[in-house]
């Protein structure tokens, strides 16, 4: 039988070893500290450069990370083009086709990293780092991005079609999709707050403007003044790809205005407004908290991004480090 002293000693040794030699499945903020120490600066500089010519690219890059992690985990599968063994690209899934963007910035970052530290930094980690840079450079929180993901060898278009939330779903459906990848209600509300910057095409919310759910009337949870503006921007039978600010108040800044907008029925997407307008939902109190306390939102958002970045990463010897983010090595 172990004495208490011996047991404590063994427990201490185990904790020290775990810290020094993390298991294969664990990501670490210092993963590249010796192999590519400037990785964060290289990514941040590239994102800053891209933002100067395209104010919405920060939101686009953040969305890429989200759309990657929800399908096969955070493995950069969303970046793979069709060709070779990739018979169906996730880029052509309903939620991504003619909508997901920022791929050129990812390629620019990858080229810079291949020059500085060839074969070291994964495309999956680039997506995680680019999302953090996009948020912090737009006025939002910064956080220590956990790293060490490797890149997947396959894409999953069918999974993208079934796993990614759509703007037309009920809150319970969206919550189920978050729960399926281990994210809870706070994560759902916090990550929805990424709609504080960026744009959405008319086709993703026009069902709210004229004939909501077959009623012949607009969505009753839409502020009437806001509705009139949106009807002007997105007329019936108009151009479905016309862009609209997700946050009409500060469209390119990362702040908590997304949540204050929900309080006055100015959520753009059905799935935005449902967070506040679904009777009895546990999301309502979280929306209220974030609307009244930007610090609480920023802290929750940073933690939820870390949680999302932990969805089923490939680590150790799994997958590969792609040389070109658009295709698996050797294809």
TrEMBL record:
InterPro entries: Haem_peroxidase, Haem_peroxidase_sf, Peroxidase_pln, Peroxidases_heam-ligand_BS, Secretory_peroxidase. PROSITE patterns: PEROXIDASE_1 (PS00435), PEROXIDASE_4 (PS50873). Pfam families: peroxidase (PF00141). Ca(2+) 1 binds at residues 68, 71, 73, 75, 77, 90. SUPFAM superfamilies: Heme-dependent peroxidases. Binds 2 calcium ions per subunit. Binds 1 heme b (iron(II)-protoporphyrin IX) group per subunit. One of its GO terms (biological process) is hydrogen peroxide catabolic process. Ca(2+) 2 binds at residues 196, 247, 250, 255. Keywords: Calcium, Disulfide bond, Glycoprotein, Heme, Hydrogen peroxide, Iron, Metal-binding, Oxidoreductase, Peroxidase, Secreted, Signal. Residues 1-25 form the signal peptide. The active site is at 67 (proton acceptor). Its EC number is 1.11.1.7. Substrate binds at residue 165. Heme b binds at residue 195. Disulfide bonds join 36-117, 69-74, 123-325, 202-234. Removal of H(2)O(2), oxidation of toxic reductants, biosynthesis and degradation of lignin, suberization, auxin catabolism, response to environmental stresses such as wounding, pathogen attack and oxidative stress. These functions might be dependent on each isozyme/isoform in each plant tissue. This is Peroxidase.
């Amino acid at each position: 039988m172990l004495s208490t002293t011996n047991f404590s000693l063994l427990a201490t040794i185990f904790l020290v070893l775990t810290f020094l030699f993390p298991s294969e499945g664990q990501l670490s903020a210092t993963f590249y500290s010796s192999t590519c120490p400037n990785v964060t600066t290289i990514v941040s500089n590239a994102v800053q450069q891209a933002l100067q010519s395209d104010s919405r690219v920060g939101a686009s890059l953040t969305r890429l990370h989200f759309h990657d992690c929800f399908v096969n985990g955070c493995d950069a599968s969303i970046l793979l083009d069709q060709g070779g063994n990739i018979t169906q690209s996730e880029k052509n899934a309903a939620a991504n086709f003619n909508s997901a963007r920022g791929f050129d910035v990812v390629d620019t970052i990858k080229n810079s990293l291949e020059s500085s530290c060839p074969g070291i930094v994964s495309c999956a980690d680039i997506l995680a780092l680019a999302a953090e840079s996009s948020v912090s450079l737009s006025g939002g929180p910064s956080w220590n991005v956990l790293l060490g993901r490797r890149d997947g060898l396959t894409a999953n278009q069918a999974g993208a079609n079934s796993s990614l939330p759509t703007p037309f779903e009920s809150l319970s459906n969206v919550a189920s999709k978050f729960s399926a990848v281990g994210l809870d209600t706070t994560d759902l509300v916090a990550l929805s707050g990424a709609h504080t910057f960026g744009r959405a095409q008319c086709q993703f919310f026009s069902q709210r403007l004229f004939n909501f759910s077959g009623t012949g009337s607009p969505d009753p949870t839409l502020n009437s003044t806001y509705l009139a503006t949106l009807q002007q921007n997105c007329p019936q039978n108009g151009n479905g790809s016309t862009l609209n600010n997700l946050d009409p108040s500060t469209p390119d800044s990362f702040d908590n205005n997304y949540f204050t907008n929900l309080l006055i029925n100015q959520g753009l997407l059905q799935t935005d407004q449902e967070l506040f307008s679904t009777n009895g939902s546990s999301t309502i109190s979280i929306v209220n908290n974030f609307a009244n306390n930007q610090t609480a939102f920023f802290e929750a958002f940073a933690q939820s991004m870390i949680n999302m970045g932990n969805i089923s990463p490939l680590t150790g010897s799994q997958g590969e480090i792609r040389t070109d983010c658009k295709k698996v090595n050797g294809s």
